[in-house]
Fold this protein.
Amino acid sequence: MIIPHPLLGPRDSQEFTYLGDASLIERPDWQADNAVDQFHDYLYLRDNPAGAHRELWFHEQGDRSWLVVTRDTVTHEIISAELARDVAKAKGRSK
Amino acid sequence: MRYSGFRVLKEALTGHKGWKPAWRDPAPKPHYDIVVIGGGGHGLATAYYLAKVFGKANVAVLEKGWIGGGNVGRNTTIVRSNYLLDGNEPFYEFSMKLWEGLEQDFNFNAMISQRGVLNLCHTDAQRDAFRRRGNAMRLNGVDAELLDTEGVRRMAPFLNFESARFPIKGGLLQPRGGTVRHDAVAWGYARGADERGVDILQNCEVTGFRIENGVCKGVETTRGFIGAGTVGVAVAGSSGRVMAKAGMRLPIESHVLQAFVSEGLKPLLPGVITYGAGHFYVSQSDKGGLVFGGDIDGYNSYAQRGNLPVVEDVCEGGMSLMPMIGRAKLLRMWGGIMDMSMDGSPIIDRTDVEGLYFNGGWCYGGFKATPASGWAFAHLLATGTSHETATAYRFDRFRKGLMIDEKGVGAQPNLH
Ligand SMILES: Cc1cc2nc3c(=O)[nH]c(=O)nc-3n(C[C@H](O)[C@H](O)[C@H](O)COP(=O)(O)OP(=O)(O)OC[C@H]3O[C@@H](n4cnc5c(N)ncnc54)[C@H](O)[C@@H]3O)c2cc1C
């Protein structure tokens, strides 16, 4: 699989390590009343879709940036790749 | 008698026209007491034990394709009960005991071959961990032997003992481990269940659940609605997809695992050998092919085929452990979808929907579990309570911190 790195262009997926569903960016608020439930769901439950999947890849053998890659889990086709940083910022996070 | 030497001779002389299918192809009934979704090893074993042990005959197995087309027909057929943790070991040993009596039990030749499973170690720390695991196995009444380098050499003189980087320091041997003809397991259970009245419905994909007021009333399928008192889901790699139709998210990710088989060679390997310093394990089939594999590819997948980096990784492992295989030709390679759970251990449990039960999270080790999984799931479906060896396989173990994490890597399914 070739990942279209937003800064470095097409890179072999072997240069990356895989973390999983991009929802892992959205860490729950530990002070919420139902923090235990939220953390259980955050840490252990997955949508695990057959089809388009947004997921985190770390460019370990490259520029060490985190990417959010949208990939089809049925065909392995890579649809897009964004910097995880940009995704987080777009959601209102500071970094 | 349906099968005999005389019958083979007779059929040979009459053009093999007298053989009949080994199980029926019935039309779905409008309602069953128990519906099992998934005609893999686990679903078929569940139906078999439901009928045979728990006296339930009004049972159907719903399979979206043909039985045995999923992981039960794709795995590398290794069976063993060499686990460390208490939540696992009694369950897998129960399974091993069922394997040992299975051919007599369902009267089908599953070619169960207990030639031993040998895990190699390459460092002192690894040997310590093996000693601990071997002791834990023995405390659970399971056979385990710790071999030193010479012990390994006697069993497998062809391994690369001279490797400076990964010297073979010994191994943990489970002599009762081995391999089983995987297709025959599916067929044996299917025939045994069918004979006892279970309807095996192929080309019958479950497309939804009918849930009213929190109670599961049956399933929507490509062959129409089928009512059920109790529904058990055993769809392995498709777990996430199917349970989403009941509105559930699972502690499971689907990943692809590849396997490989070489051309047939003369008898070479004494049993199953696993490399402790790379991702490679190997056994030899009765036809002579080397059956081998390694790790999952490592990213979510429903593709039933993998990518080349893992092929390279597995072959490198093989070459580093037993360089003599370098000239063997590869015949086939394929992939299957693994239901990788968050702690590497399975789930056999009820769900929040009344009458809906779940069996999954088998990772790449569910073939060996087939008999015990079927028995324990049948126990749960028939009695509403967990089998004594499967009490730890609950959904709420993640919430309660009672993970059964053999590898100790946490909620990172691609590392289990
Ligand atoms: C390459 C490879 C090597 C492996 N090696 C080993 C090994 O050496 N030892 C070991 O113990 N384990 C091994 N495994 C793991 C083992 O094969 C699985 O854990 C086990 O087979 C899963 O249970 P099953 O047999 O019931 O699954 P499956 O045979 O996959 O059965 C699930 C069935 O559910 C059906 N299904 C899915 N969705 C629906 C639906 N909506 N409606 C109806 N039916 C549906 C599927 O078509 C499928 O037939 C390996 C797996 C692979 C892929």
Summary: The interface with chain B takes residues 1, 13-14, 18-21, 36, 40-41, 43-50, 53, 55, 71, 73-76 of chain A (CB under 8 Å). Residues B 37-43, 62-65, 69-72, 74-78, 205-206, 234-238, 242, 257, 259, 293, 336, 362, 364-368 surround flavin-adenine dinucleotide (CB under 6 Å).
